[in-house]
Automatic annotation (TrEMBL):
Phylogenetic lineage: Bacteria, Pseudomonadati, Pseudomonadota, Gammaproteobacteria, Vibrionales
Keyword Cytoplasm: yes
Pathway the protein acts in: Amino-acid biosynthesis; L-phenylalanine biosynthesis; phenylpyruvate from prephenate: step 1/1; Metabolic intermediate biosynthesis; prephenate biosynthesis; prephenate from chorismate: step 1/1
Protein name: Bifunctional chorismate mutase/prephenate dehydratase
Domain ACT: 302-379
The Chorismate mutase domain, residue ranges: 2-94
Residues of the Prephenate dehydratase domain: 108-288
SUPFAM superfamilies documented for this protein: ACT-like, Chorismate mutase II, Periplasmic binding protein-like II
Record's subcellular location: Cytoplasm
Main location as per UniProt: cytoplasm
Keywords carried by this UniProt record: Amino-acid biosynthesis, Aromatic amino acid biosynthesis, Cytoplasm, Isomerase, Lyase, Multifunctional enzyme, Phenylalanine biosynthesis
Annotated function: Catalyzes the Claisen rearrangement of chorismate to prephenate and the decarboxylation/dehydration of prephenate to phenylpyruvate.
Reactions catalysed, as given in the entry: prephenate + H(+) = 3-phenylpyruvate + CO2 + H2O; chorismate = prephenate
Pfam family, one: CM_2
Organism: Vibrio marisflavi CECT 7928
Length: 391
């Protein structure tokens, strides 16, 4: 647009036109990303090329600064999102080729809570890249999710496993000790806690606050500042919001997500109430059968194992992983039910289960552990951003 003065309506119309153009270009770029994945099938090249991504970002930053007067951080943030989307699209395409038997027109997914729970949001986010229509099955407890999938009433289950604020979700780890299910995927979801109510009320008016125990922990600092408020536990954040809607009182509120609150006719009255501004929950996806993971995709393998009750037993297992250059991203211990003072260790490894290094490591680990089981090998979908130095 020139220096001519335009009305607000004319400016908004032009902005709408530009937005449509950007959407069209983003759609075209996504289609080209799939074409890239198809070419990599023939060449067996890995999905990610760190050097190429870094060169692309540097070029975009320089062009944006010199030609369009755009800030480097703005471009970096924007293209981190675009590159992440491209990587996930390519991974999904290659995984569909590797697992043709899992491509179904309908996918039955079990999750905790009703519509609008964080588990429900995670389910929709994870399966948005799959060519399947979702049949959503909400469950009241974590064990119900496991049972629903094990019995064949659901194809997949989505379970929260850890949170950056409140830590590991022990009940889920304990259930993994005894299930016959396999981990087939993972997803990290940003958690944006806020207070929702039937109308815009003051914090001083709240007498009762409903929530799942996890948000209570994750928002403990904010909650400690509320005086005379009774905390009521619900099976999920969605159930908490449903309760507030059903009671329809002006002295109650729930901890939830603002978008989910709108599903129940609730409005946000206080945002950003979590202890940490960067609050994320990692979810795992479980199924009755394991998946094949394309060697072109970064993968994670999860093991559970128990060691002898002797000094250095755990260290010995970790030295095996070091020997084969396998990076451990998570180590969690939980008591073995029925065996006092004995621990089961859950280990996330950044490696393909079928790789030579992983297979050799498993052989050696089997010899020095009392019990070892592979819970699953699955694509890494928490995409790390390519870093470039900003001036």
């Amino acid at each position: 647009m020139t220096d001519k003065q335009y009305s607000l309506e004319e400016i908004r119309l032009r902005l709408n036109e530009l937005d449509d153009q950007m959407l069209s270009l983003l759609s075209e770029r996504r289609k080209l990303s799939i074409d890239v994945a198809k070419s990599k099938v023939e060449t067996s090249k890995p999905v990610r090329d760190a050097d190429r991504e870094q060169q692309l970002l540097v070029k975009l930053i320089n062009n944006g600064k010199e030609k369009y007067d755009l800030d480097a951080q703005y471009i970096t943030k924007l293209f981190h999102t675009i590159i992440e989307d491209s990587v996930l699209l390519q991974q999904s395409y290659l995984q569909n080729l590797a697992n043709p038997q899992t491509r179904k027109p309908l996918a039955r997914v079990a999750f905790l809570g009703a519509r609008g729970s964080y588990s429900h949001l995670a389910s929709r986010e994870y399966f948005s890249r799959k060519d399947s229509e979702l049949i959503e099955l909400n469950c009241d407890q974590f064990k119900d999710i496991i049972t629903t999938v094990e019995s064949g009433h659901a194809d997949y289950g989505v379970l929260p496993i850890e949170n950056t604020s409140s830590g590991s979700i022990n009940e889920v780890y304990d259930l993994l000790q005894h299930t016959t299910l396999y981990i087939v995927g993972e997803l990290t979801l940003p958690i944006e806690h806020c207070l929702v109510a039937t109308k815009d009320i003051r914090l001083e008016e709240i007498k009762t606050l409903y929530s799942h125990p996890q948000p209570h922990q994750q928002c403990s600092e904010f909650l400690n500042g509320l005086k005379g408020v009774n905390l009521e536990i619900c099976a999920s954040t969605a159930d908490a919001m449903k309760k507030v809607k059903e009671l329809n009182r002006t002295d109650i509120a729930a901890i939830g997500n603002s978008s989910s609150g709108k599903l129940y006719g609730l409005q946000s009255i206080q945002g950003n109430i979590a202890n940490q501004t960067e609050n994320h929950t990692r979810f795992i996806v479980v199924a009755r059968k394991p998946v094949e993971v394309s060697t072109q995709i970064p993968a994670k393998t999860t093991l559970i194992m128990s060691t002898a009750q002797e000094a250095g037993s755990l260290v010995e297992t970790l030295l095996v992983l070091q020997k084969y250059g396998i990076n451990m991203t998570k180590l969690e211990s939980r008591p073995i039910m029925g065996n006092p003072w004995e621990e089961m260790f859950y280990v996330d490894l950044q490696a393909h289960h079928g790789s030579e290094e992983m297979q050799q490591a498993i052989v050696e680990l089997t010899k020095i552990t009392k019990f070892l089981k592979v819970l699953g090998c699955y694509p890494i979908e928490n995409i790390s951003h390519t870093q470039v130095k900003l001036d």
